[in-house]
Write a structure and sequence with these properties.
Layout lengths: L2 E5 L4 H5 L6 H8 L6 E2 L1 E2 L10 H11 L6 E3 L9 H20 L4 E4 L10 H21 L3 E5 L16 H10 L5 E5 L1 H6 L4 H8 L3 E6 L2 E3 L4 H6 L4 H6 L1 E3 L9 H10 L5 E5 L5 H18 L2
Parallel strand pairs: 1-2, 1-11, 3-4, 4-5, 5-6, 6-7, 7-8, 8-11
Antiparallel strand pairs: 9-10
Helix pairs in contact: 4-5, 5-6
């Protein structure tokens, strides 16, 4: 049966920018949710000090949870090989971080969709960089997970592999036992595409999932699809909401994942309107998991 983790979506500014929340405070907030784990973020301010890594692992373990997944954002599509080499070095450190925390999955991305970059070149650059990290990850028992992402908060351009066809090209270009997909159904809407179509194309490669939900704040899905790459829609049309009350069909998503034998971690990206909302999303997902994996 899949296990549930949570990501501090509502507290990223506090944990990563102004330091108004400590990691220990986030662990304490999440402990009563009754979940199995916490998805970590490499950019938590306190993670810059390596000596904190074993301490946080112990704090989470003391609550009965674990840290299965690491969220980070390498940019592997930059034209400068020295820049890409530095990004690979950062990814290797994030793999070490994941290993020290006891995790098994570390996110990778393609990189930014720079206007001058062709699809062929971008796929090649991203695949080469991810492949360069895979032996290091495999030696530490870590699986690198490629997410169908929208855009890192600190990037100028959206994700290179945001569009379904490009994402699938990149997934197909990397065949390694320590590589898989982190499926996020909400991000597919940001590309103006159908999450179930993407899932059917990559479900056999999905090893982890982000559970979130979006709702339309204005306009229609057709309006969203008319906007280039869905990028504008991220700001104007779509909002994070309580899971089970938005656009995603979790019965259809979980049916497909069950069909292909998925039994991995599902990390909740929710709670932007408070911990009560996150608790309701946990309850919804527990119920759906029990229905589909009885």
């Amino acid at each position: 049966m899949p296990r549930l983790a949570a990501f501090p979506k509502a507290f990223m500014q506090a944990l990563c920018k102004d330091g108004s929340m400590s990691v220990s405070q986030w662990i304490a907030l999440a402990a009563p949710l009754g979940i199995d784990g916490l998805e970590w973020y490499a950019g938590f301010l306190e993670m810059a000090d390596d000596s904190n890594w074993p301490r946080f692992r112990a704090e989470v373990a003391a609550t009965g949870m674990s840290i299965p997944m690491m969220c980070c954002s390498p940019d592997f599509t930059h034209p400068d090989p020295d820049f890409r080499a530095r990004e690979i070095k950062k990814q290797l450190r994030w793999i070490d971080m994941t290993h020290a925390l006891g995790g098994s999955f570390c996110r990778v991305l393609s990189g930014q969709r720079r206007p001058e970059l062709s699809i062929h070149k971008g796929v090649a650059l991203a695949a080469d960089a991810i492949s360069a990290c895979l032996p290091y990850a495999a030696d530490r028992g870590i699986t690198l997970i490629l997410e169908n992402h929208y855009k890192d908060d600190f990037w100028e351009f959206p994700e290179f592999a945001q569009q379904m066809d490009v994402f699938c090209l990149l997934v197909d270009a990397i065949q390694h036992p320590n590589f898989g997909v982190n499926f996020d159904p909400s991000n597919t809407y940001l590309a103006g595409e159908d999450p179930l179509e993407l899932l059917r194309r990559v479900s056999h490669r999905v090893v982890t999932m982000h559970a979130s939900d979006r709702y339309l704040a204005e306009g229609t899905l057709e309006d969203l699809r008319r906007e280039e790459g869905g990028a504008t829609g991220y700001a104007k049309r779509l909002r994070h909401g309580e899971i089970g009350k938005g656009l995603n069909d979790y019965d259809a998503i979980f049916s497909e994942l069950k069909r292909v034998g998925f039994n991995g971690w599902i990390s909740i990206e929710d709670g932007v309107d408070g911990m009560d909302q996150l608790a309701r999303s946990v309850a919804f997902l527990k119920n759906k998991i029990a229905q589909h994996w009885p």
